[in-house]
Amino acid sequence: MSTIELRKVTKRFGSFTAVKDVDLSVAAGEVVCLLGPSGCGKTTTLRVIAGLERVTDGEVVVAGKVMNNLPPEKRDIAMVFQFYALYPSASVAENIAFPLYHDGISGAERTARVNRVAAILHLEHVLDRLPNQISEGEKQRAAMARAIVRDPNCFLFDEPLSRLDVELRQTMRGQIKEVLQGLSKATVIVTHDQLEALTMANRIAIMKDGLIEQVGSPHEVFAKPANAFVASFIGTPQMNLLEADLKTFADGTADMTVAGISLAIRTDAAVARLQPGKVTIGVRPRAFTPTDTGDRGTISARAELIEPMGAETLIHARTAAGADIRVVVTRSQRVKVGEALNLRPDPRQTHVFDGAGKAVRS
Amino acid sequence: MAESILGKLGFRRASGVDEAGWGRTLAVAVVAFIYFLPVLFIIFTAFKPQGDALLVPPTLSPTSLFGLIPDHFVFKPTLENFGSVFSRSMTPDGAPEATGFDRYFFNSIFIASASVLLALVIGTLAAFGFSRYPLKGNDTYLFIILTTRMLPAIVVIIPVILMFRVVGLSGSYLGIIMLYTAFNLAFTIWMMKSFFDELSPDVEDAARIDGSSGMRVFFKICLPQVIAGLAATFVFGLILTWNEFLFALLLSGPDTRTVPVAMNQAVSSGGRGTDWTLLAAIETLFLVPVFLVTFFLQNHLLRGVTFGTVKR
């Protein structure tokens, strides 16, 4: 079975811990994206799976076998590198055929396989060229072809689309997803682009400082972020995180002070468990409804900057106490700079994070 | 006005990196020719009749260039000198004898190529090790290797002679080849290490993941990428070894003598003064092998090292 399992994997470089107690399992046919800011340990995690880095602690299990002490060439894994890493002195065809030499495959079979993947990835016309004679998109596809030409235990992708331009990235995203769906292998994709993760992954693991903060489906991590970091990392524009002082909670309504304004907002019932004190309120820019009159359920702010984004308009507003709030409204709602807004947060989309940043949810 | 004439001649300042105009090309050619003159003079001397070599004013050209050059500057080219490199009479009125120079040319070619190739093989492997599997204190090792080239040959020659005497390597091919190999190694390791350092580690990682062992990665992936470096190192090493005189003089025997040493003895023996046309002929022949090697490798020498591996 093509599966990947990481058990309490830790990787230290000297005194620096790049990956800390990471647990992750990827089922056959599943695509898991490791998502996080630069330096969060996602690429190290990938290299640990590939065997390019040795784990300091924990177990790497691929296809049901502990691989800790196996060198990369014995792991039977296919990987696509960020800079493609095509062999510069070999033609595209030779590049794609390279992994097959070790599987004892005959010459005719090799050619047939190369031609087959070349056809899938539209590379027939560049097979005789050298890697420096083809375009970025073709290099990406050649690297992909080299990975899928054999039948490995699993696939690893390191920032596969980061070097393509926006248009190409969209096409390739679709193409990679399509190819992966036909292969039913465990796949790990490292990316810092949340859109890439949200569109390609079955599950997303969000990493920060070597730790996995949350693993979940694209829907879960967006709708139910486990903590304030995940909440702010996923979703564009970013979720508004407002410092608040929780006073009391009764009948599903929290009484609190947000940026100097006393508010009564409907929140999750689990907030009842919290002691009064510092909390963080998270509301996505699209979860606000501007209303005509203000009351204790609305936040009043003044529009400072308007950014039309096509179908929607992004408004940067500021409360009297100086807190910034991003609001997205539909194009038909005209707002002028300097206009006073009363913003009512949608109670079902209002997240409360406790003092440590953990989501409070029932 | 003056500017436009200069402009037409190609002296204008080119914007960007276009090819130079004719004016600049000509100017560079003139300077290059001045540098080349001594070599040309030697080559011409090799073709002069013996008596012409010391004429004042000297004869300058083998042809009058359709009457352009006055007759007293023109010499009548002859191949006689090249013949006497290999065979000539050693005493006045004596019969021609073989000089042994065919042997000396073979020695030069054999010793230089053997030691440079040997240094290239050992040095490239060592350089790959230093580049990919660094030791603790890697830079110290590299520095120590370089120190072997910091002393002039004359300083180390006495211990080397003694060592060779003791182990019986004096005058043997093996001895001189080992010595040149050792001297070329430092240079080879430093050159090749810098070429390996330039390679993208991703490409090697990819080859590992695709199932290659460390050896295969080295031969199939790394070596093809540093061919330009191998060629450059080979040519530089060859030129250094080819022209080496001091060690060859003191450590080669009659059978293993190289051309620079033989040249020295050929022109100064016999007490008849220096035979300049003979010397010029030997030098001209001596130029040919290195010239050919460099000429055929020049494409590799000029090609950049990182041809499209990865753009960062």
TrEMBL record, chain B:
Cellular component annotations (GO), alphabetically ordered: plasma membrane
Q: Where in the cell is it found?
A: Cell membrane
Q: Which residues form a coiled coil?
A: none
Q: Which InterPro entries match?
A: BP-dep_ABC_trans_perm, MetI-like, MetI-like_sf
Sorted keywords for this record are: Cell membrane, Membrane, Transmembrane, Transmembrane helix, Transport
Is tRNA-binding one of the keywords?
no
Question: How is this protein positioned relative to the membrane?
Answer: Multi-pass membrane protein
Q: Which CDD domains match?
A: TM_PBP2 (cd06261)
* Chief localization: membrane
Task: Say which domain of life the source belongs to.
Answer: Bacteria
What biological-process GO terms show up in the record? Answer: transmembrane transport
Q: Which residues cross the membrane?
A: 21-47, 104-130, 142-167, 173-196, 217-242, 276-297
Family as reported in the entry's similarity comment:
Belongs to the binding-protein-dependent transport system permease family.
- Per its record, how is this protein called by name? Carbohydrate ABC transporter permease
Organism of provenance? Mesorhizobium jarvisii
User: Which lineage ranks, top first, belong to the organism behind this chain?
Assistant: Bacteria, Pseudomonadati, Pseudomonadota, Alphaproteobacteria, Hyphomicrobiales
